[in-house]
Design a protein that fits this description.
Blueprint: H1 11-24, E1 30-39, E2 42-49, E3 52-60, E4 69-74, E5 77-80, E6 83-95, H2 98-104
Antiparallel strand pairs: 1-2, 1-4, 2-3, 3-6, 4-5, 5-6
Length: 106
């Protein structure tokens, strides 16, 4: 499922696509490729799982680092490297196509 936001898309439609992606992918483990702090406790992550790549905005108790593994615990909640005190919650996510992936991971 490739998602992109265009001016003719409604915000509701975009949010619905993000929720659908998050609900579909909830039981996957993700490997952190890139992590950028955008605010206190809020991060923008580039993640990979098998052949799928996503960019996600998250809230986290600890800073996720490249190569960390995010493991699902419940709806939108993940542990970082299976440490129960290090929790992360997805706010939003979009799937990246090949060109976006290459651009962001250079």
């Amino acid at each position: 499922m490739q998602m992109s936001f265009h001016s003719n898309d409604s915000i509701d439609s975009y949010i619905h696509k993000m929720d659908k992606l998050l609900n579909k992918e909830i039981n996957k483990e993700w490997r952190v490729i890139e992590s950028v702090c955008v605010d206190e406790g809020e991060y923008l992550l580039i993640l990979e799982s098998n052949m799928q790549k996503i960019m996600a905005r998250v809230l986290s108790t600890h800073a996720p680092n490249p190569m960390d593994i995010l493991s699902p615990t419940s709806r939108k909640l993940y542990t970082i490297n299976n440490i129960s005190q290090q929790m992360l919650r997805f706010i939003s996510a979009i799937e990246l196509n090949y060109n976006e992936w290459c651009t962001l991971t250079r």
